[in-house]
Each structure stands twice: as structure tokens, then as C-alpha cells.
Design brief:
alpha+beta, five-stranded mixed β-sheet, Heat Shock Protein 90, 3 domains, elongated
């Protein structure tokens, strides 16, 4: 055998070796303008991807894959298939047409991206649920403000009418008592309005720093829910005139975790621990409530708050861990990298 032929044989063997060990699916099709493309060759990755055994695709029309794969036009595109069992399959395809001896062939390289489509769908669903949650929060805030203003209007109107009658009768003592009642009602209404604003954005976060904001949050939670909160907050540096973005995220996670404990846990006690550990901010919120089974059917769907917290932590470069079991309470732990706030001032 001449050297040239030997090199060709060795080269063909190397090409086949590459195809046989490729992690991407590779298909060779015979193309015809008047007939459905026929599969001439499928490497092991292609057979595994589409659920066929050795030799199970050669000579079959491309439609056996559950999709019309006719290369041409776009160089890369996505194709939706059906696996033999009916399960969905989405592949990212790179297609190339080649001519050899007057015949036209198509070379398809496929990569399974079903997981990516699933993540995209999950992202769309989460975005929709987040939008609904935000709208519900706006609705609750608007309802709270509306009720507070309405109660203040009705109460003050009634007190002013009584005050007017007392003045007309010349009853000084009753008039003074009416003024006192109106003043008390005004203060209580203003306090309710301020609380609604504080829940939307806590001023102590930027004035006194994360530790003080968490302390105020815990105290308000105790008053509102009747659940006792034991807290341990350790942040060096005293007051901060500026707050790290990570501190804001940590505060929101604590806020959501306490809200979940109030709504769902049935707990009698909640523990809140937060600290700065080197270049990290840490948070732990635990309760002695009923807990839940994270692996139970529907648990992921019913834990939107936990999903929001986890995504917030991930977006800030950190992580969130949730430990729960039926009858053993729930523990939420967050670790976030400390980032400088505006003008580089840290907590």
C-alpha cells in the first residue's frame, strides 16, 4: 500500500474515532429535493440522545426523530422533538450542507438543551408569580393606607362635630376632652401610616445600619404577631451612613423569612441571628413551628417566598440554605459577600 493511501485510511479512522467519542450528537443525512432526508450515519451520542440502539437510525427517514430536521438556511437553530416515550426533547442544532460526487448531504451536530428550555420556562413562571406577589404587596399597602386614611377621616369628622356642639353649648370641659380625643386619633392614624411606609422602606437601614434595622424589624414582628423573637445581632463599626447592597438584600431576606414564619409556621418562638464575619454577612432565621417536607409533592410550588429569597441571595453573589422537617420547624440561613455601599462606606 502506498503511503498516501495509508495516511487516508489512518485519517478516516481518526475521524470515526472522534465521532464515536463525541459528546454531541452527529447525524449525516442524504438530502433530496423530492424526498424526505434519510439518515446515513448516527454516532453513539445521537443514538443515546434519541433513544435508539446501535444501527437503529441508519437508513431511516429523519422524521423518525419526531421532528423535521432539514438543514439549510440558518446555521444554528433549536428544534423540538419527542423522545420515543413521548417526553419532550429540545436540541440546539448546527447544520452544514456539503456536496460530494454530485450528491447533497447534510451534517447535523445536536446538543441537548432541554434543561435550558426548562429553566427558561421556570424563569417565566417565576417572573409571573413575582409580578403577582409584587402587585399583591402593592394592593395590601394601598388597602392599608386607604383604611388608615378612611378611619382617620371618619374619626376626626365625628370628633370635630362633637367639638362643635360642645363649643356651641359653651361646655368648655367637654370641648377640651374632644380636642384630646381628636389629637389621640390623629397620632394613632399617623403612626399607622408611618408603619406602612417603614415596612415598604425602613429609614433605620440607611440612618443606623443593618443591625438597628433588623432590631426594629424584629420588634415590629413581635408586636404584630405575638411571637417571641430572640435575637443576636453582631455588626462591628457602629452606625453607618451608607448601606451595602448586600445588607439591603439580607434585610429583605430576614423580612420575608419572618413573614413566612408568621403566616405558615404556627411557631411560638423565632430566633434571629445576624453578623458580619470577615467579608461576609450571615443571617439565620429559625422557628419552632410545624415545619414542612421540602421533598413533598407541591412543596416547591407552595414555597414562593423561599424561592424569592434564594434567587435574591444568588443575585447578590451569595447563597441561601433551608432546613425543614415536619414537626421540627424551619431554619433559613443566608451568606452574602459584603460589598461597599455608595462612596465605599461599609457596615
Amino acid at each position: 500500500m502506498r503511503a498516501g493511501n495509508k495516511d487516508k485510511v489512518n485519517g478516516d479512522g481518526l475521524y470515526r474515532l472522534v465521532l464515536e467519542h463525541s459528546k454531541d450528537s452527529v447525524l449525516l443525512l442524504e438530502l433530496s429535493e423530492s424526498a424526505t432526508p434519510v439518515i446515513l450515519y448516527a454516532n453513539p451520542a445521537a443514538l443515546a440522545l434519541h433513544g435508539f440502539g446501535r444501527g437503529g437510525l441508519a437508513g431511516k427517514p429523519v422524521t423518525v426523530l419526531g421532528a423535521s430536521l432539514t438543514p439549510g438556511g440558518k446555521e444554528a437553530f433549536e428544534v423540538s422533538h419527542s423522545r420515543p416515550g413521548g417526553a419532550p426533547l429540545v436540541t440546539e442544532v448546527t447544520a452544514t450542507n456539503v456536496r460530494d460526487g454530485g450528491k447533497l448531504y447534510g451534517i447535523l451536530v445536536e446538543r441537548d438543551v432541554t434543561w435550558r428550555r426548562g429553566l427558561e420556562e421556570e424563569g417565566r413562571m417565576l417572573s409571573g408569580r413575582l409580578m403577582q406577589e409584587r402587585e399583591a404587596e402593592k394592593k395590601r399597602l394601598a388597602a392599608g393606607l386607604h383604611d388608615a386614611l378612611g378611619a382617620m377621616q371618619v374619626g376626626l369628622s365625628a370628633e370635630l362635630l362633637l367639638l362643635e356642639e360642645s363649643v356651641q353649648r359653651g361646655d368648655k370641659e367637654e370641648a377640651l376632652a374632644g380636642i384630646a380625643r381628636a389629637g389621640k386619633l390623629l397620632r394613632e392614624s399617623a403612626s399607622g401610616l408611618k408603619q406602612s411606609c417603614v415596612e415598604s422602606w425602613p429609614p433605620s437601614l440607611t440612618v443606623s445600619g443593618l443591625g438597628a434595622a433588623l432590631s426594629v424589624l424584629a420588634a415590629a414582628f413581635e408586636r404584630r404577631s405575638g411571637i417571641k423573637v430572640s435575637r443576636k445581632l453582631s455588626f462591628r463599626g457602629g452606625k453607618a451612613v451608607s448601606v451595602s447592597p448586600s445588607a439591603i438584600v439580607l434585610y429583605r431576606i430576614a423580612q420575608e423569612a419572618l413573614t413566612n414564619a408568621e403566616r405558615h409556621s404556627g411557631a411560638r418562638r423565632v430566633g434571629l441571628t445576624a453578623a458580619r464575619e470577615g467579608k461576609w454577612l450571615t443571617l439565620e432565621v429559625s422557628d419552632d413551628g410545624g415545619g414542612f417536607d421540602p421533598a413533598a409533592r407541591g412543596a416547591e410550588r407552595d414555597c414562593l417566598g423561599l424561592k424569592i429569597m434564594a434567587d435574591s441571595a444568588k443575585a447578590a453573589g451569595g447563597r441561601l440554605s433551608v432546613y425543614a422537617a415536619p414537626g421540627r420547624g424551619t431554619r433559613v440561613k443566608a451568606h452574602l459577600p459584603l460589598t461597599p455601599g455608595p462612596k465605599g462606606v461599609e457596615l
